[in-house]
Amino acid sequence: MARANRKTPTRGPRHAGSTQAANRRATAVSQPPMDDGHKEATMQDVKVEELSGKALEAATVWAEANQRMLNQLVEFGTGAAKESIRLYAEWQQNALDAFRDTQATAMRWQSGWQDAPRDPMLWYQKAVADSVDGTQKWFRIVESNAQAVTKSAERLQASAEQTGRGIQKAFTETTDRMKDVYARG
For the packed helices 36-112 and 120-183, what is the interaxial angle rounded to 10 degrees? Predict the structure, then answer.
């Protein structure tokens, strides 16, 4: 039993190299010289590898271009959403201001009814002045909303132009890189 558990000594690293070298010499001696058909097959393999490398590089270039384009579009979409929120907030503020003005006008009219029987001409003059004032406020609100829409459209247009330039630049660079890929070899 003691002999079965005993390990046999192995060759150290010094002897392993000489075995590998002997195997290489034996393989080199046993291989026949290359004929023209084998050389042609090897050259075709090299061409296939080159084409595969170019195809992989081209796919990488187009993937990068698509990523840059999508980043530009996402930034544009984010900017458009922010602009929409800004516009709606401004509209809402204008609507709240109009509602407050309407409430204040209603309170003035309610208190003015008591003065109408005493001096109808004064009441009529105040009513016309309040009506003109209310109409002017409504036109200012409409004008403010129109200006907000115009400013928002200008900002969106500037953002769209910037996005367009970014996408155009990405495709120009991609085209140049593709020319470089196919110009090699």
Answer: 170
List, for residues 81-92, the tens digit of each pLDDT value. Answer: 999 999 999 999
Residue pLDDT, tens place only, 122-137: 888 888 888 899 889 9
Domains of the chain: 35-183 (1.10.287)
Decide if 108 contacts 128 (C-beta within 8 A): no
Amino acid at 29: V
CA distance 94 to 104: 15
Count of other CB atoms within 10 angstroms of residue 65: 19
pLDDT digits (tens, 9 = 90+) for 130-165: 889 988 999 999 999 999 999 999 999 999 999 999
**What is the secondary structure of 13-54 as a DSSP string?**
HHHHHHHHHHHHHHHHHHSPPP-HHHHHHHHHHHHHHHHHHH
Whole-model pTM above 0.85?
no
Within the chain, what is the greatest distance between any pair of CA atoms?
Answer: 134
Residue 72, number of CB atoms within 10 A of its CB: 19
